[in-house]
């Protein structure tokens, strides 16, 4: 990289919107407590991910516990992350919020830190109709300084971004793609079909359980939580799927399903995925396992169970 | 105003928890735009409500568009409201948020401004189980400087606060009541029955359509949106219900149902209630009709329709 | 009644539609096994109800496990019930089904047995829109030989019969009322308000927890499961509510809430109400406690717990 | 089997459970009106499907409007279908019902007509818990004379058959597989992973939009509505997916997505898929387009739009 007057790590990753592809982990947020980042853990985790070959980082998503974090911490996380990444991979920043003004402030910080793009799920308190959703995204897109990915997350936001809505919004120059975390690939395949003539619109899936199949059929990649733990595995799965190497896809997909089935199923209620993931990262020595309220980390017994499972899986992968 | 060392309007309303009763309007938030209060409107509205005889004010609820407002504005609203009210009626402050740290900061401001109590709905992004909900409320209640009302709002938060959960939480000294906005009085009556031996626990309903009946059967009152427009009407309905004056209850309830049916049914999607209410307040000359994103105020045609309806209703009430 | 050649118990109950009022228990279906009525229990139960002063009987509703019963048994139940009742009170017959042809066959049997009216919830397999619901009810109403009550049961049918739909359908001469089992009295009060100028349209509630309040505000009565056990109590509650005798209403409502809270909360999952009710009737010696698949009667331990509760309540009521 | 006087086409298709694979269209039910089969259409359609190379037929599913059909017609359809098929392909018979006795009667008819297997979704009126679901399926499986496929259809039945429930039930000797119509392949892939060591358990998907990907990753095949129209296309897609011929899979999947996007999106509400499909079959001259209540066939304008679309698609496929 060439010396300039600008600090080198503040140079924007110059990347055409259609070039967002591959594995972009939704990074967990290493925390010491409700209001303090685990900065050492953050550095460890980012280096671990970049070394693992990921194609980008997505911070402040659901996996990053974004909505549970105080605002000052969210802004700080953007700054620290961009500072550590130093342009080596694109950084996508979640700005999902019920208050559009706060989303815009996060977007501003992302721009100043030279992040690459923004990601926004629908506002998740009031129940909206599709026309209201369109108005919301247009309002947002008109005012943000970076390109935007829509984020479909109906289980959490109570609204599905319908295919017609996606097509309509894709015409806005700032809106360059969508991440779908519904797990419903019947829906996702409709999006792929509908958008196939729009060159610069990238469609990602969230759940790692469907990355293999969606990439084989034209998806842009996976924003997969498990890639926090084993970035290389997910990157290889992505590459095999792009290459159409079905045998390899099947083998690697099988490992991903083992991770999903074993690591994400300890503990009860809706968030066992997130709890298992963060606990595993802690067990791997990468960062603190603290979870922000209203979620809680595993108790001792759950953690012990996970440790055994994790070791078994690590042997197969590493 | 008498000179003292402490500004008189900062003196706390000294009120035992069991004394929260009556009509406590969920105040709409008068706005000039996404990030600025309509201060003149705020003053008008508060004087209108106090003159109307309301038993308290609830700010930063769903009707106050709390989750859509930037944080600085939420804190500012608490300060301005308490400053205007000057202890004449109790002020309840909504601190509902997905980030518990932000809820705690709002609680701190409420305390400093001498508000009377806090109100918190469950965090509304992650899907929680009842035990997680209990842990959340205990965490919150342990750290707040004012008494707390639970706020049941399942259509928006995706979780119902189950009767057993309410009973369990009621034992926490800070938790003094619940506001139920489900509209489901089968549920509400179960709460009333379960909690009847807990003297200091107050059960309010949100929807004005059920205030009459729930007060007749032991409810503490109504946090009714329509009381923003016609406070006197709702206060009289409450008094008639407490007195068991059924004839009067039926007549006043009929007016409330006319308001609900006529004013809250213009416009589409989930929030026609809120849009109709804020537009009516604007038509009455009380404050700005600006609605914060993701909601939008009525268009010209809808506003004209509402104006005709409103005039017809005003004639009956005033 | 005038002597005729027709057996007296086959004479239709001649009753104007507006005259359906009061407590009309949704009768449980006494069963020996999956396909056989407990006829002795049926006779006991009907005499118990009529002696208790109920204003009618509703068979083949949700409480009657209608959708779980084989068709031959449903037809048989209509015949036996009408034969036992012999016109002493109106008999309402549930014809809810996903196959409209089977609903029509049940309606035909009801007519032949001189039942008074029919009750139909929306078909509950396909997800319908309101216009499809209107078409469905019109199709049905055009072909039935008896007047029809709509039956709102959104938790089971996945669709709410919207107030506008009710108003539209009420214009059909065969459609004379609605039973609402949503528990949502905000919705029910909107119906009451909307339909108050339609003289011959009766609005009943299902959940006994809301009978008191809805009757005080103009409801026609309650189709209350608990009236299977204690018909007199519910009839007296209804009378007190009609008379506006609030003190008495409060006392009796309290007993109903005790029944609801104590008897319907043993056992898990959605149907603890139904399981508790049928078990209690069995414990009272009225009929068999057999429940048809997919529900199951209580196990020994649950039954023992219920017995103690039931005795305590019986002492207060009898 | 011993030589008998029974015609050879009544001999059971002798097929090991693990051999159910491939494209098994959920056959629409050709109807003249609410209670009469279109027998000529039925014959045409079955010959069309067998000529198209399908691996089996599934009658009386959601696509067959099973729950809307009178019982006599359901039994008749089983008889006629088996009589026409004459053992050329396996016939799977839907016995989904809220009344288990009626399911058992349908199963008996299926056995007598030498059908190959049964298919049952959960009972869809009462809300059940997973343990209740297990009890239900065990009760059913213990009493049926043919092997059974579970049928996951949460949007219609209000319950998801959880992976643990599937694993538990798979140990019952009569339960040999599952058809998943959720569209959620994150769920489906968990099932594939969980069940991979159970040799004789077949996992099918319903939505044709996900057949390609699920077969590539180990699924047994597709119960795809579109195969009623174009059986050959879906069979070829299945074969290409089994062979891992990704290029061919992508091309054929694209055609399936065009069918899905164009043919199933006319008309409103939940059932545009079913309405479009049945209307297309009518336009192709295969059978009557009559839909049983509560669904309705397209109006003239919708039918005309579909005709143009269908011709365009037929040109690409045939």
From TrEMBL, chains A, B, C, D:
<feature type="active site" description="Schiff-base intermediate with substrate">
    <location>
        <position position="179"/>
    </location>
</feature>
<dbReference type="GO" id="GO:0005829">
    <property type="term" value="C:cytosol"/>
</dbReference>
<dbReference type="GO" id="GO:0008747">
    <property type="term" value="F:N-acetylneuraminate lyase activity"/>
</dbReference>
<dbReference type="InterPro" id="IPR020625">
    <property type="entry name" value="Schiff_base-form_aldolases_AS"/>
</dbReference>
<keyword id="KW-0704">Schiff base</keyword>
<feature type="binding site">
    <location>
        <position position="63"/>
    </location>
    <ligand>
        <name>pyruvate</name>
    </ligand>
</feature>
<dbReference type="InterPro" id="IPR013785">
    <property type="entry name" value="Aldolase_TIM"/>
</dbReference>
<feature type="active site" description="Proton donor/acceptor">
    <location>
        <position position="151"/>
    </location>
</feature>
<dbReference type="Pfam" id="PF00701">
    <property type="entry name" value="DHDPS"/>
</dbReference>
<comment type="similarity">
    <text>Belongs to the DapA family.</text>
</comment>
<keyword id="KW-0456">Lyase</keyword>
<protein>
    <submittedName>
        <fullName>4-hydroxy-tetrahydrodipicolinate synthase</fullName>
    </submittedName>
</protein>
<dbReference type="GO" id="GO:0019262">
    <property type="term" value="P:N-acetylneuraminate catabolic process"/>
</dbReference>
<feature type="binding site">
    <location>
        <position position="223"/>
    </location>
    <ligand>
        <name>pyruvate</name>
    </ligand>
</feature>
<dbReference type="InterPro" id="IPR002220">
    <property type="entry name" value="DapA-like"/>
</dbReference>
């Amino acid at each position: 990289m060439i010396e300039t007057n600008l600090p080198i790590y503040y140079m924007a990753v110059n990347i055409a919107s259609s070039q967002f592809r591959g594995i972009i982990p939704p990074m967990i947020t290493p925390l010491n407590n409700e209001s303090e980042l685990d900065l050492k853990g953050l550095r460890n985790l980012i280096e671990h991910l970049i070394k693992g070959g990921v194609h980008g980082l997505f911070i402040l998503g659901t996996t990053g516990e974004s909505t549970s974090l105080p605002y000052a911490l969210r802004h700080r996380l953007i700054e620290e992350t961009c500072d550590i990444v130093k342009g080596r991979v694109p950084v996508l920043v979640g700005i999902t919020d019920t208050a559009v003004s706060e989303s815009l402030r996060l977007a501003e910080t992302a721009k100043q830190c030279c992040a690459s793009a923004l990601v926004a799920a629908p506002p998740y308190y009031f129940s909206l109709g599709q026309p209201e959703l369109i108005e919301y995204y247009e309002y947002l897109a008109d005012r943000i300084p970076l390109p935007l990915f829509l984020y479909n997350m109906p289980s959490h936001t109570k609204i599905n971004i319908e295919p017609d809505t996606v097509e309509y919004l894709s015409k806005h120059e700032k809106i360059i793609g969508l991440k779908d975390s519904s797990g419903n690939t019947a829906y996702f395949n409709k999006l792929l079909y509908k958008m196939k003539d729009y060159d610069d619109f990238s469609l990602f899936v969230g759940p790692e359980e469907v990355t293999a199949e969606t990439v084989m059929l034209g998806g842009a990649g996976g924003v997969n939580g498990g890639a926090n733990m084993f970035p290389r595995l997910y990157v290889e799965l992505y590459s095999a799927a792009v290459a159409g190497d079905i045998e390899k896809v099947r083998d690697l997909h099988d490992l991903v399903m083992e991770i999903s089935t074993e690591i994400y199923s300890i503990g009860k209620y809706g968030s066992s995925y997130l709890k298992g993931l963060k606990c595993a990262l802690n067990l791997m020595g990468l960062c603190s396992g603290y979870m922000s309220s209203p979620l809680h980390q595993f108790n001792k017994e759950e953690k012990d169970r996970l440790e055994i499972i994790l070791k078994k899986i690590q042997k197969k992968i590493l």
